[in-house]
Amino acid sequence: MIRLAQRLLLVFVLSSLAACGGDARLGTIALAARVDGQGRPAPPATVFARGDVVFASVELEDTYKGLQVKASWKHGSDVVRSEEQSVPRDAGTMDPVVLVFRLETKPDWAPGDYRFDVFVPDQGVTSREFRLESNR
């Protein structure tokens, strides 16, 4: 009976530590005109036409439920869209997790260089650049 109590206590302690969350790790970040059913780019791209939808596929490992990931889409220093997503599952289940962020560009947006910034706690900001062209 004592061994059972010790084992249950150990399981409780380990479960509690896992639920505290650790340092999530940022994996692949890719931009694309579409993503597959798992949120992966199909295929990756860095050049888009004005009016296109641009997807950012962000892969994370060692995540934990409630992890907040912030993203912003920028043209120069202007933020054209920002959003935040929470990781929707418990730690260690089905790594990696892929979050998909979406930007609907407008036909009247200025052609040129744009940037996707993603912030993951304890990882800082990571960026991917892309270009909007008048005609492709």
Number of helices: 1
Q: What is the average per-residue confidence, as pLDDT, rounded to a whole number?
A: 84
Strand order of the largest sheet: 2-8-7-4-5
Tell me the series of helices and strands, N- to C-terminal. Answer: HEEEEEEEE
Strand coverage percent:
over 45%
Shape: elongated
Main β-sheet, in a few words?
5 strands, mixed
Helix content: 10-25%
pLDDT < 50 runs, ≥5 residues: 8-21
Q: What is the CA-atom radius of gyration, in angstroms?
A: 19 Å
Distance between the termini: 72 Å
Global structural class: mainly beta
Number of DSSP E strands? 8
Essential attributes:
single chain, 136 residues, mainly beta, five-stranded mixed β-sheet, three-stranded antiparallel β-sheet, 1 helix
Tell me what you see in this structure.
With 136 residues, the chain is mainly β. Helices cover 13% and strands 47% of the residues. The protein has 1 helix and 8 strands. The chain has one helix at residues 2-19, and strands at 25-32, 47-49, 53-61, 68-75, 78-86, 97-104, 112-120, 124-133. The longest helix is centred in the first third of the chain and has 18 residues, at 2-19. It is elongated, with a radius of gyration of 19 Å. The relative contact order is 0.24.
